[in-house]
Amino acid sequence: MRMIDLIEKKQHGERLTDEEIKWMITGYTNETIPDYQMSAMAMAIYFKGMNDDERSALTMAMVESGDQIDLSEIEGIKVDKHSTGGVGDTTTLVLAPLVASVGVPVAKMSGRGLGHTGGTIDKLESIPGFHVELSQDEFSDLVNRNKVAVVGQSGNLTPADKKLYALRDVTSTVESIPLIASSIMSKKIAAGADAIVLDVKTGAGAFMKNQDQARELAETMVKIGDSVGRKTMAVISDMSQPLGNAIGNGLEVKEAIDTLKGQGPKDLTELCLALGSQMAYLGGAASSLEEARLKLEANLHNGKALEAFKTFVSSQGGEAAVADEPENILPKAAHQQDVKAEKSGKVSEITADQLGIAAMMLGAGRETKDSQIDLAAGLVLHKKVGDTVESGDIMASLYSNKPINEEIVSKVRQNIILSDQAKEPALIYDVIQ
After folding, report:
1. What is the pTM (predicted TM-score) of this model?
2. Which residues of 227-252 are buried (b: 16+ CB within 10 A; e: fewer)?
3. Any idea which residues carry the catalytic annotation?
């Protein structure tokens, strides 16, 4: 078998066999196939695409390129959730304890943030004492006891994906549905979940800017998951404006706690109920999505979701009292500044990615992997799209442990756009089952 023949085959739009794909990924991982040949293949896939069988074969070849997490010691159907990324995406902090509260095991492997996209691990480490360094036995034991645990990414998971992603990044082949889908699904499958729920974002703050792209990606990933024996569902959700009101690590923990008390922002609560219903249904806690939602709604209001959060936090070394008095336990910023409206009108647009960058400039994100982040930094929106604003109203509050300069204030003000008319965007565009 020769790589040049496979490249030519794909350039002509022909299907690669499972054996050819496995050989190619194995060779690229062990460096017998050079970058320049894999670049040519990535470009051929970019233009010619892959069919369902090829996408599944590519995904499993990447899964098998490294370690696979064994969650067999954990009782029940293990359900994982993945978001394609956004601004103010606090869903995991709410979903993990909420879904655990109805008896579904959530064994979550999460990462840190880079750029303006926040990482779940950073957010949780805003809670004093909380740690994610768990052995496999500790992780399994916690999930069996509490139905929930979060561990940091470790081991040699999907090394082929790491190599291929870095290559795509410098060859302008990132935006390829087969390559995106196999990248995401290979990591989820290698992490050991029995069922996977996907939150595919679309809009200005998302990777997939339009709904058609998001739907194609969601359908592709659901097909891949189902074809390799993982129950998979997806939601296509809006990221034209930030989700919820808070952007920043400690600020998002506070918002998650409010949501677990049934007092969170409307959009964050609704998305968590939609995703959580799928997780609870796939995990066997309900016979329908409707029944699952009713159980989750009940636990947001009867205190069970919050109790699950307290148990989760204390079991991983954190101060459980954060659930009762977050303002006294979470990190506080030395500087706060309000951004006020200079005219009246309605909020017609909030540019999610630009506000994410503003939060990063305040210290809430990393510009490089080695950057230090300020766990207290970020911003809180007081107005969302569709809201009426009077001149002088506070539109957002900024927090940082370094002086807040006018450039950041101006960036926030310019990206909360006022006009005479505005319409609140839909939150969920489609559900793929």
Report:
1. 0.92
2. bbebbbbbbbbbbbbbbbbbbbbbbb
3. 82, 161, 168, 183, 187
